[in-house]
Amino acid sequence: MSSVAVIDYGMGNLHSIAKALQHADSRVNVQITADAAVIRAADRVVFPGVGAIRDCMQALTDSALDEVIREVAKSKPFLGICLGMQALLTDSEENDGIACLNIFPGHVRRFAEHMLDSEGNVLKIPHMGWNQVKQTPHPLWHNIPDSSRFYFVHSYYTVPDNQQDSTATADYPTAFTCALAKDNVFAVQFHPEKSQTVGLQLLQNFLGWDGVA
């Protein structure tokens, strides 16, 4: 039986993503865990998260899970979600500047204040709700129509140094990277577990993915 480790570092609705993974493929053994040995032994790893990046990085460092993540992100299919995506960048300007895991070279920036949409309306921060996601080719987009709508909740967004690492964008109001991909790592700013049919399809694609782009 295939196994998935959902990394538990004390932040995020882990049961929601675990339940969605189980729904995407009932044959998969999904474990919510902070045990390094379990994470290393799993066939696939999911790194979710919500909240502040400072608290996230402190929790990872205190538990030594930062090094475990760097290790498994080199060796098996790995999915980062929301804050779990942002933590994969080099650093974030949140909390006056926080060093992150540097798996994807790049930076996390805050949306500007007083942004306007095409009709002159002020856009709220956080960016919250459904938004279209424009894809570039990758196995995890299989059976998901381009410009499908996914559910977002975030005030910060990723700016990768290497644009080839970006595999999807959304507009708020201009385009920002909302999905990253490199080798066996895939990461999304939106919440697939809250994105209904297309979110479940992405999780199903991840559970069948061998880590080759």
Report on the architecture of this protein.
With 213 residues, this protein is α/β, with parallel strands linked by helices. It has a single domain (3-207), classed as Class I glutamine amidotransferase (GATase) domain (Rossmann fold, 3-Layer(aba) Sandwich), CATH 3.40.50. 24% of the residues lie in helices and 33% in strands. The chain contains 6 helices and 13 strands. It has helices at 14-24, 36-41, 53-63, 65-72, 83-86, 196-207; strands at residues 3-7, 29-33, 44-47, 78-81, 89-92, 98-99, 104-110, 127-135, 148-154, 156-160, 166-171, 175-182, 185-188. It has a 9-stranded mixed beta sheet with strand order 2-1-3-4-13-12-11-8-9. Strands 6-5-7-10 form a 4-stranded mixed beta sheet, covered by helices on one side. Helix 1 crosses helix 6 (196-207). The longest helix is centred in the C-terminal third of the chain and has 12 residues, at 196-207. It is globular, with a radius of gyration of 16 Å. The chain starts with a strand and ends in a 6-residue tail after the last helix. The model has no long low-confidence stretch (mean pLDDT 96).
Short note summarizing the structure:
With 213 residues, the protein is an alpha/beta fold.
How much helix, percentage-wise, in residues? 10-25%
Number of helices: 6
CATH architecture: 3-Layer(aba) Sandwich
Count of spatially separate domains: 1
CATH homology superfamily: Class I glutamine amidotransferase (GATase) domain
Q: What is the overall shape?
A: globular
Rounded mean pLDDT is: 96
**Strand proportion:** 25-35%
In CATH, the topology is named Rossmann fold
Can you count the beta strands?
A: 13
Structural class: alpha/beta
